[in-house]
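Troubleshooting: if your tokenizer reports a length mismatch, compare your output against this known-good record of 86 residues.
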Amino acid sequence: MKKIKNQNELLRVAISVGEKYALNRGYTGFSSTNSSKEKVESLYRLLVNDNMIQPLAEDSEDLASMKVKLVKWISKQLPENHPLLN
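Known-good structure output:
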């Protein structure tokens, strides 16, 4: 799988924005003890449930693929001139 430019930084932004979205949806929030893996999986499942991203095939549902889905999702949400997209 080809790595997306600024993937790690975009993933951080996706998690931050995703957490705010989850709170607005009524999720009680992530605790400070939640790992990044747990956050990625929870946000991925929430966005799939809300039909905001296309679900992965069941046999390819792994952490790396979920991260890429979140990065692609946030890339579409950010303005075109955002520094992380250039």
